[in-house]
Design goal:
The chain is an alpha+beta fold. The chain is built from 15 helices and 22 strands.
Length: 430
């Protein structure tokens, strides 16, 4: 593999890349510069600006940590695009308009993947043209296996556009199992749960020294399952219940001597990071200006217009994530969003948050139970449950597994890089 066994976890929210070292189970993870330090987690976002250069407009872009830094220090309006992986199943959304140019979704994803590859080449000191890449069991929005194949083919095209000559895909929870297996001294039947930004994926798989020695067979994987609900869905509930009311959701407007509700579809877009940047379209902004003129609470609509017009999606995302993380350790947590003009303050209670996400939690529970039933496995037969991904810290999520498995059989670790490390170990075996 061009001198290096490389695994890439291109995630909805964060990405990481790693390679195995020699023939051992040791793995080196790429570290990326960010705000004077380094991070192993590369934000899967793209920031674009329309720059005037030698009398012509030129589209320039940055990704990951560099994209965040340019976005935060911007002097002219730009376009921040997040959660691109969530678009892959859509047959209607093939491209988006960026400063008057149509750009394919695959090209936008390839821009991020190209930077990941080049950063890895700089650290590893070798060219990289091949990789084992992660994919969810079910992509966001997938209703059939044909939808999953369609999304995977689009993602494969993006990898090739980014300079990867060969790409082999591995289920993300199976990749996490490879990482967990590297820490074992005995054989186990494990349930792997990978909590991403867009999907929750599960695998029941036999791992351990015996499997490593004889080589893995299809019979070792007892089953996979996945549902398009994860961290972004929890964030959306916080936006809906805590943030949107401060931006006019649920308020009214006067139109032709009638009292009507403010359009709700705008707030549905606000809840989804991968749709948020589309609200800045000219027709949407004109509509919001008209709503403000007729609104009974115009200052709230003005705040919404400011948030969209100033492209504050990243700030909103960070504020929501902080509240969600704080609720993992505290019974209540503040929400604060400020940019000098916009000031939003609220308090979320853990009990309220857990009621907001009841439907999502029930769907995750059903997915786990269906996997166990299809595989013919009783909870008592599972030796260990390995939870990876950021939402592993959310108490209501953890309780799903504590109710089915003894708490001493639940493990976490390397929540943000275990998939990439497992993919690297898989790559070294090819």
């Amino acid at each position: 593999m061009a001198g290096s066994a490389v695994g890439i976890d291109f995630g909805t929210t964060n990405s990481s890349i790693a390679r195995s070292i020699g023939h051992s189970s040791s793995v080196e993870v790429v570290r990326f510069p960010f705000l004077g330090g380094t991070t192993e987690s590369y934000r899967s976002l793209l920031y674009l600006e329309n720059v005037r250069h030698q009398g012509k407009n030129k589209l320039v872009s940055w990704t990951g940590p560099a994209g965040i830094e340019h976005y935060l220090s911007r002097e002219t309006p730009g376009r921040l695009i997040q959660s691109l992986k969530s678009f892959l199943t859509s047959r209607t959304l093939q491209s988006t308009e960026v400063f008057g140019r149509r750009v394919k979704i695959e090209d936008l994803i390839a821009r991020i993947l190209r930077d990941l590859r080049e950063k890895a080449e700089q650290q590893f000191g070798v060219p990289i043209t091949s990789a084992v890449a992660g994919r969810p069991v079910n992509f966001v929005g997938a209703e059939t296996e044909e939808d999953n194949r369609y999304a995977e083919n689009r993602l494969r095209s993006a990898y090739r556009l980014a300079g990867f000559e060969t790409v082999q895909f591995e289920m993300e929870p199976v990749a996490a199992a490879h990482y967990y297996e590297s820490t074992l001294q005995r054989d186990e039947l494990i349930l792997i749960r990978d909590f991403g930004g867009g999907t929750s994926d599960f695998s029941l798989i036999r791992v351990g020294p015996t499997i490593r020695r004889r080589g893995r067979t299809p019979a070792d994987l007892l089953g996979n399952a996945g549902v398009g609900i994860a961290g972004d869905a929890f964030d959306a509930r916080i936006v809906r219940n805590l943030v949107s009311p401060h931006l006019g959701s649920g308020t009214q407007m006067r139109s032709m001597n009638k009292i009507l509700p403010v359009p709700t579809w705008v707030y549905a877009k606000l809840e989804r990071w991968h749709h948020l940047s589309f609200l800045k379209a000219k027709d949407t902004m004109n509509m919001l200006a008209s709503v403000k003129a007729q609104a009974l609470e115009p200052r709230k609509i003005e705040a919404l217009i400011h948030l969209v017009n100033e492209d504050l999606g990243y700030h909103l995302h960070q504020a929501v994530q902080k509240t969600k993380c704080d609720l993992s350790t505290d019974n209540d947590a503040p929400f604060h969003l400020s940019d000098g003009f916009l000031e939003l303050d609220a308090v979320a209670e853990r009990s309220s948050f857990e009621s907001w996400v009841e439907v999502e939690v029930a769907a995750i529970e059903a997915c786990v139970d269906a996997l166990l039933q299809r595989s013919g496995v009783q909870p008592a037969e599972v030796n260990m449950v390995f939870l990876t991904g950021g939402s592993s810290f959310v108490p209501v999520v953890r309780r799903i597994f504590e109710l089915r498995f003894a708490s001493d059989r639940i493990r976490t670790g390397m929540e943000f890089t275990s998939v990439a490390q497992g993919l690297a170990l898989k790559a070294s075996q090819l």
